[in-house]
Queue: 2 jobs
Job 1
Amino acid sequence: MKTIVTGGAGFIGSHLVKKLVKLGRKVIVIDDFSSGSIENLNSLGIKKSKIEIRKIDLTNFKETKKALRGGNIIFHLAARVGGLTYLHSAEDAELLALTENLAIDANVFKACLENRVKKIIYTSSTAVYPYNKQKKLGTVFSEKDFQIDSYQLCFDPDGGYGLSKIMGEFQLNLIKKIEIGIARLFNIYGENEPIDQKAHAICDLAKKAIHYPKEKFIVWGNGNQTRDYLYVEDCVGALIKIEEKILHSSPLILNIGSGEATPIKEIAEKMILFSGKKIKPTFDLKKPVGPISRTADIEKAKTILNWQPKISLEGGLKRTFIWIQKKLND
Ligand SMILES: NC(=O)c1ccc[n+]([C@@H]2O[C@H](COP(=O)([O-])OP(=O)(O)OC[C@H]3O[C@@H](n4cnc5c(N)ncnc54)[C@H](O)[C@@H]3O)[C@@H](O)[C@H]2O)c1
């Protein structure tokens, strides 16, 4: 049985490929290497002989259809994705996230149908949930807060990126001949996360602590804003369990997160601790912070998958910090 991972050279994709290879699967990695890299696969010790790599731009349908041939199970992770600045503030960011992701998803789903794929596991996002509810602390979302079994009259996603994931979920809900799993990922972190302009808050704060005092240690906002952080290996464990549990009838939709709300200032404190330096953070209230809070209700995933996060936040952050430190020193 061949398993395809689109975006398999990316952050989460590379960890998923590692786990699938360990389980003895034949894995095909599809990626255009716009953000992913061979280095991501090598650094996790994945042997080239164990995988097949197809360099494909999934915005091109002909290439997509050809590349997806021979796969029974598809983990579809490829997308334009990144941190707050990359996805929302840069020029044309919203438009590009929307149009590129719509094109990638539509091509992949059509090619899956034409190639008679058996299962699709799609990485959706917390960004599908109503943005307006995320302006206060304590916001927890269960899967019922956004449903795709009826056409809702209004959406309130997090930007063009969130809208593209909503459209991805709607398309999947209309597919009848393939078993579908949809993982609404919250904030995933760990080794291989981009540390360039696409970096999320954890990598950004780790870099600032490592570079201090050459670089100022600035936290965006007052630091009280919270996110739901899940270590990448726990995320991959859930994706694989979703594949096992998918039923034919309708998409299995699950929040995948830690279920815990962590203020960003707590992440900053941990990064300072790991650096071993005496740093007093500056809080810049003029910087954008995105949602004030969003946390996953993960009861459904725990029950259906018999899964729960194994790695503590402290442990996962330490691993990530050490990896970034090494990467910056190489
Ligand atoms: N990282 C998170 O916290 C998070 C949260 C919610 C959802 N997700 C979703 O999980 C998936 C993986 O995200 P990630 O964080 O690993 O990001 P990533 O950028 O590391 O991975 C995406 C991969 O897709 C590839 N790609 C992009 N455009 C492509 C194209 N046109 N053709 C072929 N390949 C292309 C990139 O090169 C990259 O390897 C995405 O679908 C993302 O939306 C991630």
Job 2
Amino acid sequence: MAPATSSTSSAITLNINGEKHHLPVDHRTTLLDALRERLDLTGTKKGCDQGQCGACTVLVDQRRAVSCLTLAVAAEGREITTIEGVAEGDELHPVQQAFLDLDGYQCGYCTPGQICSAIAVIEEHAAGRPSAVTEDLSPEAAPQPLTPEEIRERMSGNLCRCGAYVSIVRAVARAAEAHAETRTAGAKETTA
Ligand code: FES
Ligand code: FES
């Protein structure tokens, strides 16, 4: 039997959706292949395998990452969330629910990546991080709304071959509104 660790492979531990997975990997193995081929987490999709379509998007330490360009060994010690881990038990994540309610998909192949990206986009916007189309970048600028233009720009790394973009933008906007309402209610509770 081959040793778990050699000059070209290592035994690593990946923390995925709150569970630790121990596995030996060739150093060239991408996170995408580790998820799909080694751990049977096939919700994350392979489209282009070269960082251009966004189908393989997952969250690494709450930031989105294309798993086809992330080496599995580089993901060790990070908190990885895949589409299989975004729901709370039987309760869908608000972004999943919005995609379902507003038909934010057709064939569904790009959808796991779209949803993971959208979750991060909403957090990035709520944290005040600007995009290439954010107009007022001055430090004293009031928080700016997550407009359809902002959503299109921030989600531009996620392609949809079915062209479901109109519904995807609506779904992200709906989920962002729900997220903002939850934050406002939480802030009121804290100050009450
Ligand atoms: S499969 Fe990773 S970006 Fe296309
Ligand atoms: S829903 Fe088919 S590729 Fe996006």
